[in-house]
Amino acid sequence: MRCAGPVNRREFLRVGGLALGGASLADITVGRAAAGTTKLDTSVILCYLHGGPSQLETYDLKPHAPVETRSMFHAIPTVVPGMEICEHFPLQAKLADKFSLVRSLNHDVAIHSDGGIIVCTGKRPSQLDPTSQSKSEHPDFGSIVSRVRGLHPSRMPQFVSTPSQFYFTRPTYLGVAQKPFVVGDPNNKNFAPPELKVAPQLQERGLDDRKALLEQFDRFRADLDLQQSLEGTDEFRRQAFEMLAKPEVAAAFDIKQEPDKLRDQYGRNMWGQSFLLARRLAEAGTAVVSLMMNSPKRGPEFTNWDDHPGNAGRPGHFAKYMRTRLPYFDQALSRLIEDIWDRGLNKRIMVVVVGEFGRTPRIRTGPPNNSIGRDHWPNAYTALISGGNLQMGRVIGKTDTKAAYPVESPHSPQDLLATIYRHLGVDYHRQFVDFAGRPISILPHGEPIAGLM
To answer: What is the rounded CA–CA span in Å between residue 330 and residue 234?
Structure first.
């Protein structure tokens, strides 16, 4: 990081005043240097495949493994020599020179919420909860980026989640002002972010009716976890008011402005329209867009990525559900990648596709209906990365013959987060003070993935 240069007298005096509020001179000057290198125009779209997709049925097929391990699908070649992916990803296969695969991600927690906390915060929960009801003790990367960057010049929210918020993450000691701006399913014909519906009325009134506005935001705050710090509540309200006052912000959320042909190409379903909305928001300046990718449509024929026996009481073989689900994902993701590159946004926007873990090498039959699937497996899983001004068309890392453990270039969730923070211009060594007054680093360890640099 380059030095930001000498601090002038006026700023030095301002620092002295801030120090009375608990910030040290060193903290402020380091923050100033970091701010000087922050890339305010870069964005990350996180496609989070909740449930943990099988690496063996997506991006790390082992066609020559024993029958009890072997992928249920065929591997197909891509435009990148030597890179093979699932047969149900034909559209992605044509774009493989525009993404890279990290096949050697791993950690040691086979619980949905706790694994998700590790992947999204870089920190292991102090106590694991096998019921998957854990809530993060530390802010996830979206809240951190929102805090570091501050209010966007255009008043676009810095952190947006769609079609729902991650149930296991919270802004914790960063305060509720760093919560994600949550919008619903953009495929819904009546889709409109609730917070933005009041914008036209406010414009007609000349923004005079602050009382009605604040009452509306108080209603949206009613479901806040009372165990969280309420620090930042007024900041949340201030930012919300400024955001509502900007018609350009509402326009960025208006997915109906996109041509019908393009919306069809993304797919008229929750996944397709969420990916399209994410592109619109990232292009407009939102730093982090998190997509909670459970199922493209509602219905028992899809389920989610948690493909173990008995998931949601479904009968039959997990491959049947994946065979239904994967084409929707292939269509939405490939169109997003293509769209970003066609618009020349591939340096500004990074797309990351990952779940909380992978799936066991061994296929199992289990209760309650003798269904067939793969269990949770954090020891090896794959992430797809596109754009971000990184090296594309690469396969980073390698797993053993059963896709069970990394055997080359192993990487942690912290390494992936460090790669994301680097793109966003965030110093991941920076510290924040937690509820107990302890300084906590953004990442406890981890470095950007060298093979992508």
So the answer is: 42
395 pLDDT above the threshold of 50: yes
Judge if 94 and 10 occupy the same domain.
no
Is 420 domain-assigned?
yes
Q: How many structural domains is the chain composed of?
A: 2
Does a structural domain hold residue 179?
yes
356-370 pLDDT per residue, tens: 999 999 999 998 889
Residue 29 and residue 64 in one domain: no
User: Domain range spanning residue 356?
Assistant: 42-187+255-452
Secondary element (H or E) of residue 123? none
CB-CB contact of 266 with 275 (8 Å): yes
Specify whether 56 is located in the same domain as 132. yes
324 located within any domain: yes
With 0-12 / 13-18 / 19 or more C-beta atoms within 10 angstroms meaning exposed / middle / buried, residue 188 is exposed
Q: Which residues pair with 441 in a beta bridge?
A: 431
* Residue range 222-228: mean pLDDT, rounded: 45
Average pLDDT, the chain: 85
What type of residue is 53?
Answer: P
Cβ proximity of 118 and 413 under 8 Å: yes
Short-list 354, 357, 347, CA closest to 392: 347
Predicted confidence at residue 232, as pLDDT, reads 55
Statement to judge: residues 96 and 157 lie in one domain: yes
Q: Are residues 48 and 17 in the same domain?
A: no
Q: Verify that 22 and 64 share a domain, yes or no.
A: no
C-alpha dihedral sign at 223, 149, 291, 359: negative
In which region does residue 425 sit, left (phi positive, over 0), alpha (psi from -120 to 50) or beta (all else)?
A: left
Q: Is the pLDDT of residue 74 over 90?
A: yes
Q: Are 381 and 106 in contact (CB under 8 A)?
A: yes
Q: List, for residues 265-314, the tens digit of each pLDDT value.
A: 999 999 999 999 999 999 999 999 999 999 998 888 888 899 999 887 78
Is residue 63, in this structure, part of any structural domain at all? Answer: yes
Sign of CA dihedral 194, 199, 201, 202: positive
Average confidence (pLDDT) over 63-69 = 93
Residues 6+ apart with CB under 8 A from 165: 179, 180, 182, 292
